[in-house]
Amino acid sequence: MLRRIFSAIAAALAWLIGLPGRLLGGLFGGSLTPPPVGDSPLVSELREELAARKGEAVDHDKTARMVLLWCADSIVADRPVPVPSALPRDVKEWIKGLSRAECERVISSEKTAISAHIRKLYALPGVRPVQPLTAAEWSPAPVSIGPAPDFVLAATPRPGA
Length: 161
Known about the structure:
By secondary structure, the chain is mainly α. The protein has a domain at 43-129. It is 58% helix and 0% strand. It has helices spanning 2-27, 41-77, 89-95, 100-107, 111-118, 149-155. Helix 2 (41-77) crosses helix 5 (111-118). The protein is elongated and about 110 Å long. The mean pLDDT is 84.
């Protein structure tokens, strides 16, 4: 019983508090209507565009990661390894023609720089742009490398010492 009394008092107070707003709205020809429930077409289009851009960014990141891994695997195998099938067609035609030196430059770059190179925003120095390339045959890497000059000086005994 008390609950009904208190809710009736609260409803009456809310009506009294809202009365000046309704009077002013009536005087100026407007009313205090709430905004529409759904989103406007502009907001919907903007949300769709943001979702599409986020999806593209994820795709570019995956492509850059696959190119980086392909270059690393090719250097470890000392020959070009098979091209991943998930890469876009233009990247597949480009990646199979990269030389060992270009792969080393790709590996030493960040994923964002690789992604920008693939999207043709800016070029990685020493790496050809994304275009159809003929498959490259790598010459075998040198089997043995001579010691560094500093090591030779440190390892050989000095006369009179």
